[in-house]
Amino acid sequence: MAQGATDLLSSPEAGGRVIRGGLFRGTAYFGGALFAAGTSALLFRHLGTDDFGRYGTVAALLGIVSGISDAGLTAVGSRELALAEPDHAMRLQRNLVSLRIAITPLGILAATIFAAIAYDRTMVYGTLLGGLGVALVNTQATMMLPLSVELRLGTVALFELARAALGFVVVLLLVVAGATLVPLLGAQIPVGLVLIAVTPLVIRVRRSLIPGLDAVTARELVREALPLAIALTMNVVYFRVLMIMTSLLASSTATGLFATSFQIFAVLFSLPLLVLSSALPLLSVAGRDDDDRLRFGLQRMTEVALAISIVFVLGIVAAAPWAIPFLGGDAFRDAVPVLQIQAFALIPVFVGQTWQLGLLSLRRQAYLTWANTGALVLVIALGAIFIPLWSAEGAAAAAVVAETGLAALVYFFLRRARRTVAPQFGLTPRVVLAALPAFAVLLVPLPWLVHAVASIAVFLVAAAALRAVPSELLKALRP
């Protein structure tokens, strides 16, 4: 498995396959986002503002559990599987599955204890039941790591789309049955069970899915993953701490409004890492063998990530006045400016996650700990100031500033790790110049659909005229 994968990752065709695979995953993600939007609409209308605030708070806790229980194993596992010999790759995969199964219950226990201290009994039960769903879904994601290393990204995309579709179906059935908050928080349990049952059908070496733990391989994985685990713990807490702080520092209505924006933003937040992480095995091989190739890859990924993030921001700012009332009704209309502010955080999220992959490929994951620690301190300080002053809008503004600070720190550490591979300005000024008239369109009083179409069209036309799109991207998409 691994030797063939390593040869493929070193070949000239690998870049094109990663780009096309990223496109597959991005397309599937959009399909999944439609199911997620349907799921959110069901929850908005079924639970109401206050109960949805409670749902969003528990979902944030479960997101922390998911990130912490990953413990850096997904990223490190993907990198090590790409570089390992076949026999060692099988041992690595079996140990990854075992470690995931062993670590996740610890995160669920910690979240449940926190819920018992801070919230009521219903939220405690919801955290415990939702945690079981997290354990199943995350274990299945670890089982699929060989597909990413072999660049079978179309299959990965199908599973990601299936997860969102199954989640929508389960929530729909629960809502029709009149389910309360706790059963709705456990909706991921049947989703995880179905996906785990199907996964062995697409894995070539099924023995690699059988849990197996040996001391040498486990120590090797833990040693590599520990710095990244600390960094990801900081990142997960940092991303969701504003939701928790809002629930403690603001009114229940403000918590519901920020939970609405946060729920939509959380769906989009996962997109850059989902798509860009497809390139991690390729970047890992380049980081070991070829600085020039790594520098070229990071440069082009940064430029594409910046352009795509601007398209998302334009679309969200334009569509928010329609989308939020459509999903939740007029009771959630006050969440529109909250989402429009928070949308701008996507720009540093997209480019910053590209640079994080650069540090991972260089085995400098310890630097991510320092970057995320700084961002966590920053977001807590900003939240403590902004939330009492401006409520939900203040939490959204704190998110934008903190994400920008995190991206700046990651870039600083990437240059410190290996200055020669850090992206330069390149096409960035052209992308920014193309964005200016597009954002100007949003200032003109127009219907939301005209705003969205016109602003994005202006940006794409200006980007094409200024040659702000990397030629390699267009070449990889040709038949």
Secondary structure class reads mainly alpha
Q: Uncertain spans, ≥5 residues at pLDDT below 50?
A: none
Overall pLDDT, averaged? 81
Q: Give a count of the beta strands, DSSP E runs of length 2 or more.
A: 0
Distance between the termini: 27 Å
**Helix segment tally:** 19
What fraction of residues sit in β-strands? under 5%
* Integer-rounded radius of gyration: 22 Å
For the report, how would you describe the main beta sheet?
Answer: none
3D shape:
globular
Helix content: over 70%
**Topology order in helix (H) and strand (E) letters:** HHHHHHHHHHHHHHHHHHH
Would you write up a description of this structure?
It is a single chain. This protein has 479 residues and is mainly alpha-helical. Helix content is 84%, strand content 0%. The chain is globular, with a radius of gyration of 22 Å. 55% of the residues are buried.
Keywords:
479 residues; mainly alpha; 0% strand
Blueprint (SSEs and pairs):
Blueprint: H1 2-10, H2 14-70, H3 73-83, H4 86-118, H5 121-143, H6 145-149, H7 153-176, H8 181-185, H9 188-198, H10 215-249, H11 252-276, H12 280-289, H13 291-328, H14 336-342, H15 346-361, H16 365-417, H17 428-441, H18 448-465, H19 471-476
Offer a quick outline of the entry.
By secondary structure, the chain is mostly helical.
